[in-house]
Amino acid sequence: xxxxxxxxxxxxxxxxxxxxxxxxxxxxxxxxxxxxxxxxxxxxxxxxxxxxxxxxxxxxxxxxxxxxxxxxxxxxxxxxxxxxxxxxxxxxxxxxxxxxxxxxxx
Length: 106
Prior knowledge:
About 5% of the residues lie in helices and about 40% in strands. It has one helix at about 1-5, and strands at about 25-35, 40-50, 60-65, 75-85, 95-105. Strands 2-1-5-4-3 form a five-stranded mixed sheet, with no helix packed on it. The longest helix has 5 residues, at about 1-5.
C-alpha cells in the first residue's frame, strides 16, 4: 500500500517513481553500493540497450571513490561489480536495481 501511495510523489532527482515514458526498448539500471562509511548507500544509473536476464550480462562500472571515503585522491577509481539484480519497484517496467560490490585497483 505504501508504494502505491508513493506513485505520485516526485523524487528529488527530477523523475517520477513510476516511469510511464516510452524508453524505446532501453532500460535504466540503478547500480547501488555501500560507501566507505559502511553505513551509507550510494547509487548511479546508466542506460542499457535492452532488458537483462542475468546479472552476468551487466557490465562492470566505475566511479571516483575519493568522494565516498573509499579511496584517496590519487588512484581513486573504484570498480562496481554487479552481484545481484532486482526489478526496480520505483521506475517499474524492465528497469532494474543492481546491487554491487566495490573493488579498488591494486
